[in-house]
Design a protein that fits this description.
Helices cover 36% and strands 17% of the residues. With 363 residues, the chain is α/β, with parallel strands linked by helices. The structure holds nicotinamide-adenine-dinucleotide. Nicotinamide-adenine-dinucleotide binds next to α6, α7 and β8.
């Protein structure tokens, strides 16, 4: 199969659909790989690395779209990219179609086969192509929180791990899923005093077994949450109610119970945020202060560590890309029901029920 990747053109997107290592893997399976010149520069992968891996460099995205049978990307195609898609061509990338009628209409019109990373499932009911980005965001949340706690950034001047003779900071993680687990791991590693709240008893049991005495677990009742937040130096918001906006668990009134200069990191901001006072920020200006409490609420945290994020995403996406290239999309999807769940649009139809329902198409 001819597989291609292009330079991402969405604002401030530095990740890339295929790393040189992914190219090498596809080439080893007998496929031809087209890479737009400069596609990997955002992750420090120069054109020479792609050529050494066996790619053919091409000058323009138009040439990639014209020749490739499958285009592998990171972000949803932008309007100019959608205009280059053709009937029967495979598009393998994040799409997030439900809130995006314009993109959906263009993809339907294109006749392309659109496989969305975010709806591919695994045998445990998880979303394995979303998971790596939650891992990145969870780990980064502690770095971001630690920085925001510094005086120069408006924080209360507390070091997460403390030092001998001085107590460590109190870190409260709300939501013990992928983001929360990874955040807690980093905070424990730095020596902080960590408490994880969740409302799933099964999750609390698992976390308790995983962390042992190095982190506390607490049922996420209103009273427990309010008490934990009041004492915290750093609160990480990491809840998710699938398919719904995040619940506002920390209210504005609760900010006055906190210590001035304490920090809230709202990772759930991409679902509307789980703190009442959150609004989305950017990497250029990640924090703001409300009632003396520092807020960090960057909606695309993994973008800041594009290199790590690209490799993490590639580890999850590449096996499916290889399967699609080896078998053709129809056979690959018929052999793997989890990959099949990724099919969102095909032959001018929306094939993913939730997207069809949200946007009024017949699934
Ligand atoms: P997940 O499903 O793995 O975990 C969510 C957890 O929240 C679950 O354990 C659930 O039981 C718990 N929860 C639900 N309601 C709760 C409540 N009231 N109190 C305490 N816990 C509660 O989800 P995840 O992958 O960890 O993602 C968490 C959030 O982070 C999502 O909104 C996701 O979109 C977001 N996210 C943001 C970024 C970013 O860049 N900002 C990146 C990746 C993920």
């Amino acid at each position: 199969m001819i597989v291609g990747t292009v330079k991402e053109i969405k604002n401030h997107e530095y990740r890339v659909g295929l790393t040189p290592e992914a190219v090498q893997e596809l080439v080893a399976h007998g496929h031809q790989v087209l890479v737009e010149a400069g596609a990997g520069l955002g992750i420090g992968a120069g054109d020479a690395a792609y050529v050494a891996a066996g790619a053919e460099l091409v000058a323009t995205p138009a040439e990639v779209f014209a020749r490739a049978e499958m285009v592998v990307k990171v972000k949803e195609p932008q309007a100019v990219e959608r205009a280059m898609l053709r009937e029967g061509q495979i598009l393998y990338t994040y799409l997030h179609l439900a809130p995006d009628p314009e993109q959906t209409a263009d993809l339907v019109k294109s006749g392309a086969v659109c496989i969305a990373y975010e709806t591919v499932t695994d045998a445990h009911g998880g979303l394995p192509l979303l998971k790596p980005m939650s891992q990145v965001a969870g780990r980064m949340a502690i770095q971001a929180g630690a920085t925001a706690l510094e005086k120069a950034h408006g924080g209360r001047g507390v070091l997460l791990g403390g030092v001998p003779g001085v107590l460590p900071a109190k870190v409260v993680v709300i939501g013990g899923g992928v983001v929360g687990f990874n955040a807690a791991q980093m905070a424990v590693g730095l020596g902080a005093d960590v408490t994880i709240l969740d409302r799933s008893n099964e999750t609390l049991e698992r976390l308790s077994a995983q962390f042992g005495a190095s982190a506390k677990t607490l049922y996420s009742s209103r009273a427990n949450l309010a008490a934990a937040v009041a004492e915290a130096d750093l609160v990480i918001g990491a809840v998710l109610i699938p398919g719904a906006a995040a619940p506002k668990l920390v209210t504005r009134a609760m900010l006055s119970t906190m210590q001035p200069g304490a920090v809230l990191v709202d990772v759930a901001i991409d679902q509307g945020g789980c703190f009442e006072t959150s609004h989305a920020t950017t990497h250029a200006e990640p924090t703001y202060v409300v009632d003396g409490i520092v807020h960090y609420a960057v909606a695309n945290m993994p973008g800041a560590v594009a290199r790590t994020s690209t490799y993490a995403l590639g580890n999850a996406t590449l096996p499916h890309a290889v399967a699609i290239a080896n078998l053709g999309w129809k056979e690959a999807l018929s052999r793997d029901k989890h990959l099949k769940n990724g099919l969102n649009i095909w032959n001018g139809n929306v094939t993913y029920a939730a997207v069809a329902e949200a946007l009024g198409y017949d699934a």
